[in-house]
Amino acid sequence: MPKAHLGFLLALVLGGVLSGLSDRIDPYHLDVLIGVGINIVLAVSLNLIAGHTGQFSLGHAGFMAIGAYATAAVTIFLGPHLIGDTAAPGGLAENTLFGSALLIGGLAAALAGLLVGIPSLRLRGDYLALVTLGFGEIIRVLLQNFEPLGGALGLNGIPAYTTVFWVVAAGAATVFTVGCLVRSNYGLGFLAVRDDEIAASAAGLDPARYKVVAFTVGAFFAGIAGGLFGHFKMTITPSGFDFSRSIEIVVMVILGGLGNTVGVILAAVLLTLLPEFLRPVAEYRLVLYSLLLIGLMLARPQGLFTFRTHRAVPRA
Q1: 127-167 pLDDT, tens per residue?
Q2: Is the distance from CB of 288 to CB of 281 less than 8 angstroms?
Q3: Strand ranges (DSSP E) for the chain?
Q4: Banded pLDDT at 311 (limits 50, 70, 90)
Q5: Which run of H or E residues covers position 182?
Q6: How far apart are CA 94 and CA 79, in angstroms?
Q7: Helices 27-47, 60-73: inter-axial angle, 10-degree rounding
Q8: Quick one: which of 1, 4, 24, 266 has the most CB atoms within 10 Å?
Q9: By C-alpha distance, which of 316, 125, 150, 160 is closest to 233?
Q10: Are the CB atoms for 225 and 175 separated by under 8 Å?
Q11: How far apart are CA 265 and CA 42, in angstroms?
Q12: Closest Cα to residue 143, out of 156, 133, 152, 134?
């Protein structure tokens, strides 16, 4: 069995074990653990867009918001009609509903990624960042003024369906999918578009196709992360998916090293735990957090967890 498949299966087993022990885990530690898993999904999915394809996107929070609201809408408005009020908590019907809702949320975010990717194909660098930033703000404002989904007050009473197993499974699926893409023949196209788009076109590649695929796949998993987030917090508001949320995810990718999946995962863990360690100095937490980030980037501009200077070539 290939190592990637074995790792994916082991992650699912680990998720099942941790989920069975979740009742014994302190609620605070469980909250942090779930947050780490969700941030890993977000960081790895953005790394496909920014790290492997070289597209600087600031709209990941917008994709996350679409997934969160779409998933919550399914479970809140359709769930009672599909499984009724007598479904056993954690049973087959509930998990099937939640899995289907997550898939719908991911597909809704992927559609948004497709719609953003197509018109921005000719843009690169700062211009693409501005387009994706504008997209994220448009989504936030639309949700803030869309009363059927709660408007500015957001959605409340979301079922608490997110468990450790769902988060670990989503993280494993994200890492597995991105890894398979990058190590396939398609991965060569991603690297070619990232390194020199003009040379890639001259070699017969279609940069537009690779950009759209990266945006769509990355947005899909961001939508999954949004659905997990909403069904863990049990309430979501448009302000929770603002520009600062996108910046947090970008910092994880940059700090971990662009194109370095393992580094991005470690950075997501570090940047999720770091604010918790700074709680004893709550009044200075944001200042210390910012200074630490600045220091880390000055000391390791190539990424905190990037140690090799050569790039692995995907298998043919």
Answers
A1: 778 888 888 889 999 999 988 888 888 899 899 899 888 99
A2: yes
A3: 155-156, 235-236
A4: very low
A5: helix 164-183
A6: 9
A7: 120
A8: 266
A9: 160
A10: no
A11: 10
A12: 152
Q: Taking a C-beta distance cutoff of 8 angstroms, is the pair 11, 168 a contact?
A: yes
Phi, psi angles (nearest 5°) of residue 72:
-65, -35
Q: State the greatest distance between any 2 C-alpha atoms of the chain, in Å, as a whole number.
A: 61
Helix, coil or strand: residue 213: helix
Predicted confidence (pLDDT) per residue in 226-248, tens digit: 999 999 999 999 988 988 888 88
Average pLDDT over residues 41-55: 90
pLDDT reported for residue 184: 82
Taking residue 301's Cβ as centre, other Cβ atoms within 10 Å add up to 10
Cα(42)–Cα(272) distance, rounded to whole angstroms?
Answer: 12
Going along the chain from its start, the domains and CATH numbers come out as 3-299 (1.10.3470)
Task: Judge contact between 305 and 262, C-beta under 8 A.
Answer: yes
- pLDDT-based confidence at residue 64 (cuts at 50, 70, 90): very high
Q: Are 223 and 205 in contact (CB under 8 A)?
A: no
In the numeric block, the tokens 């469980």 are attached to 30
Q: How would residue 310 be classed by pLDDT, with cut points 50, 70 and 90? A: very low
Residues with Cβ within 8 Å of 168's Cβ and at least 6 positions away in sequence, in order, are 11, 12, 14, 15, 18, 19, 37
Q: Is the dihedral of CA 121, 213, 165, 87 positive or negative?
A: positive
Residues in the chain: 316
The pLDDT, as a whole number, for residue 18 is: 63
- Structure-token pair, residue 158: 């979301």
Judge whether 174 and 11 are in contact, CB under 8 Å. no
* Cα-Cα end-to-end distance for the chain: 19
